[in-house]
Amino acid sequence: MDPWSESEGKRAHDPIFQCFSQNQNHRQPVENCCKERSVDAVVARSERCTCFWVSGPIIVGAGPSGLAVAACLKEKGIGSLILERSNCIASLWQLKTYDRLSLHLPRKFCELPLMPFPADYPIYPSKQQFVAYLESYAARFGISPMYNRTVVHAEYDEQLLLWRVSTRTSGTMGEEVQYVSRWLIVATGENAEAVQPDIDGLQEFPGTVIHTSAYKSGSAFTGKRVLVVGCGNSGMEVHILPREMLGHSTFGLSMWMLKWLPVHVVDRILLCIARAILGDTARLGLKRPASGPLELKSLSGKTPVLDVGTFAKIKSGDIKVRPAIRQISGRDVDFADGQLEGFDAIVLATGYKSNVPFWLKDRELFSEKDGLPRKAFPNGWKGENGLYSVGFTRRGLMGTSVDARRIAYDIEQQWKAKGTLPDVFL
Fold first, then answer.
1. How does pLDDT run across 341-379, given as a tens digit for each residue?
2. Where are the chain's structural domains?
3. Are 62 and 188 in contact (CB under 8 A)?
4. d(CA 183, CA 389)
5. What is the pTM of this model?
6. pLDDT tens digits for 146-181?
7. Which end of the chain is less packed: N or C, by CB atoms within 10 Å?
């Protein structure tokens, strides 16, 4: 018996795929309870929860990655269901970024599949422009996520050969709703949850403490001494490389050189140019890692910070660089080099992490340690039993586009291989 027929036969005996008529005592097959749904789903009620059958893939996350794979599927005539815990698309961009944010890479490296940025956009689109682009993208491909749906559990049912995805309405403890499908695409990304550092004394700090996910602008900190913990793009926009070199974007120049030169050679060239432009950053407290910027990105996912003005503030002394924190006592911060300074506010630019291990019951595709695919790019997009990942490549939106196209093609081949799908998918 083929997997499709076996799946259909097994689910006929599972109570979650059966609904109860209010006027009759006998059970009706779930297909007879069909109601018109935008996601082409069938609803069934049992004592456990409300269950929807989804004919196409289930996508968890309505950020750029979720939108990209949904569009690629749509292009091939395959519908999908996107579950999003927030009330909008690209919630990280819309709700958890500062006001003056812009893309750090040129727009041509940040396009989603099948739709370029508007021609009148600047080289580095603003946050507002990027969000407008994503909203236009969703509208163009008719993508309508189901908002305020927090996925609390997703697991492959070995008996039914299907994925069960359980959700609750965000912010409530309401009824559990379960969605069932042959395919599950994880698109929650590398930056799903804010990382809160464990610093001795931080909880007792009497001033303001916020994570950059809640930071909007510096106006609230006028006249205050602020400690920024972290040295990534959110914390300070200078680390190693200027945003542009030799009249070209640093990223674009890197990609061009990588066509002919190995990574370690490109790294050496980038660092030589950076030193000529910025000087010795170590004398200002910015020590360079042993690995070059591209090698470090490939091995650890740590992105080199591109300078858009912060380095000049460091050179002038407006911004001081300090080593690690030993502890915090009241408003005083004790640093590893023995210096003690007082602050009015602390901004935690300590980044984000994947939340996949908290809800996805899978030990093959994703690591339980960091919630990222176990296999490095370009081999981390596909797991077993119809499980996929998109947006976990550590290569930004370029990696997202590659994965989205691969996933859509792979699922399309499965549809074509079967020819006419069984009724369970109609």
1. 999 999 999 889 999 999 999 989 999 989 999 988 888
2. 50-192+354-420, 195-348
3. no
4. 11
5. 0.82
6. 999 999 999 999 998 999 999 998 777 767 899 999
7. N
Beta partners for 361?
Answer: 155
Of the candidates 21, 24, 23, which has an alpha carbon nearest to the alpha carbon of residue 32?
A: 21
33, 267, 323 from 290: Cα distances, Å: 62, 11, 17
Task: Classify domain 50-192+354-420 at the CATH class level.
Answer: alpha beta
Which class in CATH covers the domain with range 195-348?
alpha beta
Strand, coil or helix: 297: helix
